[in-house]
Amino acid sequence: MSVASEYLQLQRQSADELVRQHAPLVRRIAYHLMGRLPPSVDVSDLIQAGMIGLLEAARNFTTGRNASFETFAGIRIRGAMLDELRRTDWTPRSVHRKVREMAEVVRQIEIETGADAEDAEVMRRLGMGAEEYHAALADAASARLLSLSAPDDAEGGAAFDVADGESLGPQDSVEHEGMRRALVDAIGSLPEREQLVMSLYYEEELNLKEIGAVLGVTESRVCQIHGQAIVRLRARMTGWTEQVEAGNRARATGKSRARGS
Hints:
The chain is mainly α. It folds into 2 domains: 3-87, Orthogonal Bundle (Rna Polymerase Sigma Factor, Chain: A), CATH 1.10.1740; 93-260, Winged helix-like DNA-binding domain superfamily/Winged helix DNA-binding domain (Arc Repressor Mutant, subunit A), CATH 1.10.10. It has helices at residues 3-34, 43-60, 69-87, 93-113, 119-126, 130-143, 170-188, 192-203, 208-215, 219-260. Helix 4 (93-113) packs across helix 5 and helix 7 (170-188) runs antiparallel to helix 10. Residues 186-234 are annotated as: Sigma-70 factor domain-4. Residues 208-227 bind DNA. Its main location: cytoplasm. Sigma factors are initiation factors that promote the attachment of RNA polymerase to specific initiation sites and are then released. This sigma factor controls the expression of flagella-related genes. It holds the Pfam family Sigma70_r4.
């Protein structure tokens, strides 16, 4: 056996051992995510995707990295699970449409009043009762619980994408950084209670029950507050996304004219 063949065999053995040792990490991450997902999501699908992420991490890990393998693998495993959730987006198109409608109403109210849109006025303009409105807020939270990165449905609307910056081109990187700044500003403008829920959910990664215990409210109330924050963020990000889309159209027109000249 050549030196190269021996080296490759040792690499494969090392990767296989890392996968065996860290398989429980996949289940732990999967069940942690399940605490933040609807019952319709199958944990076995997450585990399967996570095992693929673990295998890729084992193959690509080098001892010269600053992070430990568990930290490195955890990022890959979680990323693979989120990719699977995005790919199989469980949210019906009707929910996406409803979220867009709610966000547009919130935007109109806040433009007119210069203040946070109140639930009562949003419900009045949408023609919704309290029960239907709160159910729509819960749906809004589910439609956007992947760190504000799940894709929109094919009918349009802006996604709050948080893609890997290293994979972006120069223009995409500028837009990506602009989106991050706009999103940070939008979150900072939320009512205090909504800001707190967003921080506990997305930064501290507490589930709704745990957040309810912190705030002293029910899990369903946390879900409503979360949904309110998502709808309000979408409304307040609309101006930024419209600017980006206008810029993209202008660049496309310029390129078309350049090719025709």
